[in-house]
Amino acid sequence: MIRAEMSPLRRWVGQPLLELAYVSLSLFVGVVTFTLAVTGLALGVGLLPLFLLGLPVLLGTVYVVHGLAWFERTRAAVFLGVELAPRPMAGGTGQHWLRRAWSRIASAEFWKETSYALLLFPLGVLSGAVVLSFWAAALAGLLLPVYASRLPGQSAITWLHWSTNLEIAAGFAAGVLLLVLARLLTSAFAAAHLALAVALLSPSENDALRREVTRLTTTRARMVDAADAERRRIERDLHDGAQQHLVALAMNLGRARLKLDSDPEGARLLVEQAHLEAKESIVSLRNVVRGVHPAVLTDRGLDAALSALAARSPVPVRLDVDVAPRPSATVEAVAYFVVSEALTNIARHAHATHAAVRLERADDRLVITVSDDGTGGATEYPGGGLAGLRDRVAAVDGTLDLRSLPTRGTTVTVEVPCAS
After folding, report:
1. Of 59, 128, 242, 325, which sits most exposed with the smallest number of CB within 10 A?
2. C-alpha pair distances (Å), 25 with each of 84, 128, 134, 181, 410
3. Helix, strand or coil, per DSSP, at residue 307
């Protein structure tokens, strides 16, 4: 829960009126939420014996109640200046739609939001009626000097049987007292509404911790899989590249040694071939090392490393790097991996004629944007390159946003904390 800063004018003038509007609207909103929740639950449960009819109704009720919860969080932010963390809908990772639907219906999140929709009705009726009554009575007393002369009879408050001026003064004093009470009651009921919303519409600390543990566990498992896949790739590159060249080098040197006395010219040719194999081995090893962590990244930073990466790209790349001061080595490695993987995907799949890479710091975050003018339509699927990118970014508490419309190119935007 985040409470926005308030100016003195809003605290003493605007906030009481906003709290009054919030509590008063709860009287009417409670009727709507109660009606929708009860109707949806009654129809869904009543039709549940007819499975194909009851389940869609209950699932529709889940979405309706979830929308009402979003509306209530928005209402608390507008009138009370309090940002409530959203409670995510459960069942988003189910493999089958039926299992996903049932997990959402049976989830604690749905029933907490439903409980709020039901409890808002009695609380809204009680708080709205009491608060509006006290404010109406307070205004009647405060404005009594204005309309007392137009009241019928000889006195302003007939049951006191005092003089008119004394009755007006008494009514005005009662209005001041009722105004104070109305203000206190409004704040108390607004706090009660907010407490109910925090308890039922926003995740608790335990929920947040549980969700964070789940996210970290999933991310760790994916990173272990990614590291294992990277290890296998390195082994394959070494076996298919450097190892083959070194085997050929050893064989040529062995044959050259045997021919050194009997056929010097043939030995010279074999030595030349061995020299070529040695150079190719060096190139293969350099490519493997560059794929793991290029030395230029450690020595000269992202600008130089990405410039070399862009120079090797078969697609022309416009590079713009502004990351001063230099981020941590972990963030630099992630940024390099993101750009390298994105440029590789562009070269292989995008059919692009141009690509653009931009890195900049936004406060304490590094923003990486890679775009192209290719065919677009890129999708993320488990085990794919984009999924690997997301896992690598999530490991340092970063975010990845993919926008890829057909015929409009692809844009990958990554944000990672610079202090990671």
Report:
1. 325
2. 19, 8, 16, 20, 45
3. helix
Q: Provide the 3-class DSSP secondary structure of residue 90.
A: coil
How many other C-beta atoms lie within 10 A of the C-beta of residue 292? 10
Q: How many CB atoms lie within 10 A of CB 23?
A: 26
The distance from CA 212 to its chain's CA centroid, rounded to whole angstroms, is 13
CA proximity to 344, closest of 272, 412, 253? 412
**Residue 372 and residue 260: Cα distance in Å, rounded?**
56
Instruction: In whole angstroms, give the CA distance from residue 85 to residue 179.
Output: 34
Print burial letters for 300-313: b (CB count within 10 Å at least 16), e (below 16).
Answer: ebbbebbeebbeeb
What phi, psi does 89 have (nearest 5°)? -75, 135
In the DSSP assignment, the letter for residue 92 is T
Highest mean pLDDT among 193-197, 349-353, 390-394: 193-197
When pLDDT is cut at 50, 70 and 90, the band that residue 406 belongs to is confident
CA 31 centroid distance within chain = 32
β-bridge mates for residue 404, sequence order: 410
Residue type present at position 212:
E
CATH 3.30.565.10 region(s) of the chain?
296-417
Q: Considering the domain 296-417, what is its CATH architecture?
A: 2-Layer Sandwich (3.30)
Given a contact cutoff of 8 angstroms between Cβ atoms, the answer to whether 140 and 179 are in contact is no
Delimiting residues of CATH 1.20.5 domain(s) in the chain: 220-292
Quickly state the pLDDT bin for 55 (edges 50, 70, 90): confident
Give dist(CA 6, CA 19) in Å, integer: 14
Going by C-alpha positions, the residue among 120, 93, 95, 106 that lies closest to residue 59 is 106
The architecture (CATH level 2) of 220-292 comes to Up-down Bundle (1.20)
Residue 26: pLDDT above 90? Answer: yes
Which pLDDT score, from 0 to 100, does residue 237 have? Answer: 62
pTM of the model: 0.55
- Residues 17, 369: Cα–Cα separation, whole Å: 45
Q: Which candidate, 27, 407, 78, places its Cα nearest to that of 186?
A: 27
